[in-house]
Design a protein that fits this description.
Elements lengths: L1 H18 L4 E5 L2 E5 L11 E4 L2 H17 L5 E5 L4 H9 L3 E4 L2 E6 L13 E3 L4 H11 L19 E8 L2 E11 L2 E9 L8 H15 L4 E6 L4 H7 L2 E5 L1 E5 L6 H5 L1
Parallel strand pairs: 3-4, 10-11
Antiparallel strand pairs: 1-2, 2-3, 4-13, 5-13, 6-11, 6-12, 7-8, 8-9, 9-10
Length: 258
């Protein structure tokens, strides 16, 4: 399922990145880079997916110049479990490990029911700005930190969900369909509504909808805090991914690898 996760992640960004003004995709043999200049400090929307060590080695020096020219100060490279040579390459090039989310997968036939929680009204068509705002608030980001990065969420392959409590946006998420897999992204809960079971029940409904659309599996990358939520619904761990950050330290990958 790691291959399915990577393929879906790559397609997810191919749709999302160019939808933002100035956003674009760079394709090289075995390497794809996504740029979102409207969110220059958000590495999660300025990132690189690669298929093999050689593709990363050959493409990394160029990417530093490309991101710098786009005004992006924080970008990162995804690695998968077992890609030790790529990790060493990134360390030599000056990248630092930003985070290690858990790759997770679920057969939708094995979806479990969540526990009860606070009642909410389900909105299947919220404005993308509501998704943006909730993610900024949940992640303690300044308003506007994500810029127009979520403009692509209007594409029909995305499915937006928002839980409203007493009319207020309380929790949100997005799913993205690719083949028979639906990827879960941008899960966020308003801080004052956290730990009340909203995200689990909202995601359960989104996955029921995905199953009814003919999706057979779901993948996601979980924070440490989110793993309990996802395992409760039936997701299983696949191993930790690496998010290798470049944030303009002295030198460049081209110099470091020379």
């Amino acid at each position: 399922m790691l291959g399915t996760l990577t393929a879906t992640l790559r397609e997810f960004y191919r749709v999302e990145a160019p939808a933002s003004p100035g956003g674009r995709v760079i394709e090289r043999d075995g390497l794809t880079a996504f740029m979102t200049p409207s969110a220059p400090t958000q590495s999660i929307v300025n990132c690189v997916v690669f298929d093999g060590h050689d593709a990363l080695r050959d493409g990394l020096p160029l990417l530093t110049d490309e991101y710098r020219a786009a005004g992006v100060s924080h970008w990162m490279v995804w690695t998968r479990p077992g890609e030790d040579a790529a990790v060493r390459l990134l360390e030599r090039a000056g990248h630092i490990r930003e985070y290690e989310p858990m790759a997770m997968a679920l057969s939708l036939d094995a979806l479990r029911e969540p526990a009860d929680g606070v009642p909410f009204a389900l909105d299947r068509d919220p404005h993308p700005v509501e998704i943006t705002t909730l993610n900024e608030r949940a992640n303690d980001e300044l308003p506007g930190a994500f810029g127009t990065a979520f403009a692509g969420l209007r594409d029909p392959r995305f499915h937006r969900y928002l839980a409203r409590v007493e009319g207020r946006p309380a929790a949100c998420l997005v799913t993205f369909d690719h083949g028979e897999n639906t990827m879960v992204q941008w899960v966020a809960t308003e801080p004052s509504f956290q730990r009340r079971g909203l995200a689990a029940r909202l995601l359960h409904q989104a996955l029921v909808d995905a199953r009814e659309r003919g999706m057979r599996s779901s993948t996601l990358e979980s924070s440490y805090e989110g793993e309990r939520l996802y395992t409760g619904l039936g997701y299983e761990p696949l191993g930790r991914l690496g998010m290798w950050l470049w944030d303009e330290p002295p030198g460049t990958p081209a110099q470091a690898l020379a």
